[in-house]
Amino acid sequence: MILKKKKIFNDYATSKGLRSTNQRTLILDVFLSTHQHVSVEELYLKIKCGYPSIGQATVYRTLKLFVEAGLARELLLHDGQTRYEHIISGEHHDHMVCTSCNTIIEFEDETIEKAQSEIAGRHGFLIKSHKLEVYGLCSSCRN
Amino acid sequence: MILKKKKIFNDYATSKGLRSTNQRTLILDVFLSTHQHVSVEELYLKIKCGYPSIGQATVYRTLKLFVEAGLARELLLHDGQTRYEHIISGEHHDHMVCTSCNTIIEFEDETIEKAQSEIAGRHGFLIKSHKLEVYGLCSSCRN
DNA sequence: CTTGCTGCAAACAGTTTGCAGAACT
DNA sequence: AGTTCTGCAAACTGTTTGCAGCAAG
What we know:
The structure is a homodimer.
Chain A (H helix, E strand, L loop, with lengths): L1 H15 L5 H12 L4 E2 H11 L5 H14 L2 E5 L5 E5 L7 E5 L5 E4 L2 H14 L2 E12 L6
Parallel strand pairs in A: 4-6
Antiparallel strand pairs in A: 1-3, 2-3, 4-5
Helix pairs in contact in A: 2-4, 3-4
The structure holds a DNA duplex.
């Protein structure tokens, strides 16, 4: 899985004539090793441990590369920070965000996707992507 | 409709002991008279025409009041600006955003809402709100 | 008169950008 | 060698905040 992602990035890098640098390799490693939905800040701090001279700008720039390469997706949740999540071979999922403890539950639903296409069809709209976030309280916080 | 909203806000203001000021009245008027999904900047500029001494901070503060009062909703789309839309008597709807011309089509769907509650139920999750945005090309831009 | 509201400017957070030097090919 | 990439710091954008004066109750 991780190897596959590295390959995706290398292929992308090659196809675009990008260079392979220590920073990029390291950022990719750390990104792949983190749980989902990391903020740039979180990643930056983690990377700084193993490579103290890294600059924030590099992390920002590299994450954008990952998005272009198709292995990460940008998330704009409600905490004012851009977060990045892994893309697992084109699969899409949505999020239930607990507003109390910030736990994120991922889910996927056929019915919803179908309903969307149906509505889009009715409006002559061509879907490229979508984003569904459900906010509320998770099972441990609702009590 | 507009009168009703004014009443909602007045009731809220009274209940919270807020004062009625020219600025608030004007901002409410302009907000109610605009099309959906205004950014703070857009509103600010419109208001500045009729009331040049208005400050941005007041617009920001007042819009937050509207949200608290239940007559506006904050939207975080993908253009880095917070936008506000009208809430029509508790009704909820979702958005299809054309990434080419920025047209926003609103829709509502029973099936999707139901599927959500069903999934939430399965996870013991208590839904407070949700946000669904579909991105793609509208009928005029897809050609 | 008391307290809340406003406008201003400064502060802020997250992100982007210009640039000189370093690193890859 | 030539060009891309990096780190730094400064710039920027959207938003928030502190404060002195103003205005509503």
